[in-house]
Amino acid sequence: LDTLEKWVTEIFSEIPNNGLPKPSFGHLTQPFDTPEFHKLYRVVPIRKVHSLTITWALPPQEQYYRVKPLHYISWLVGHEGKGSVLSFLRKKFWALALYGGNGETGFEQNSTYSIFSISVTLTDEGYKHFYEVAHVVFQYLKMLQKRGPDQRQAIWEEIQKIEANEFHYQEQTDPVDYVENLCENMQLFQKEDFLTGDQLLFEYKPEV
What we know:
By secondary structure, the chain is of the alpha+beta class. The protein has two domains: 25-145, Cytochrome Bc1 Complex, Chain A, domain 1 (2-Layer Sandwich), CATH 3.30.830; 149-207, no CATH class. Helices cover 38% and strands 12% of the residues. It has helices spanning 2-12, 69-77, 85-91, 124-128, 130-147, 153-168, 175-188; strands spanning 50-58, 95-101, 114-122. Strands 1-3-2 form a three-stranded antiparallel β-sheet. The longest helix is centred in the middle third of the chain and has 18 residues, at 130-147. One of its GO terms (biological process) is proteolysis. Keywords: Hydrolase, Metal-binding, Metalloprotease, Protease, Zinc.
């Protein structure tokens, strides 16, 4: 550690600090607020696969990293048990898999917007009924919206415990990747959350 600290001091101490706050682009809201995004696009894939992806451009959510509302919603959407979207679609033989969420990369989550996507891998039969598949997804989201999060604190706490266990028992990563990840976290989170802000859930706020 002493050697590493010496190297870091030698290499980085000469970098000047201009004393300026980090740039924010929060005033550039709704970059996708255009009729062009309210459309259905058909793309011919290179390999034989049927995939339906529904994408929403949302207000920026990165300031809510202690709550992680998109992670909470993706947990509900991606649930595979009884009563889930995927369970229903599998019974219809329309879908093989379903994924929903935000990748939390700079493109999908920043100070200007956040993107939330739901992707469904369809069967040949599901491809013939992709309108109905999309309708089921929207129906499920509408149900979540109507019921609201107030009755689901137990689910949020369950997610919190699972993420905490995964954090505490995670395998050691490559040091270079770990340092790079920490440097990114330093641009996004409060100092006390540099190590945990991208993984743990801290606060339950149903209004968020």
